[in-house]
Amino acid sequence: MLTSLLSRSALQARRRAIVxxxxxxxxxxxxxxxxxxxxxxxxxxxxxxxxxxxxLKTGTYYVYERMWDHITWGVxxxxxx
Length: 81
Prior knowledge:
Layout: H1 2-5, H2 8-40, H3 43-68
Helix pairs in contact: 2-3
């Protein structure tokens, strides 16, 4: 099982990263909704814009990260022992 392969600190670090990510996304949704409300003047439209924009941003970031997994520039390779 994966949890047996990870140290307790690695599990805590992963959980912390997930919580930080979710909190950040919620913060960004609120900022987007606020800006959208100022621009469009309708709370329902502002909420739709905030959610749609952030779902799209999250998805495109994932694709962006996956693309970088295939780029070796700047990655140091470990020496074989």
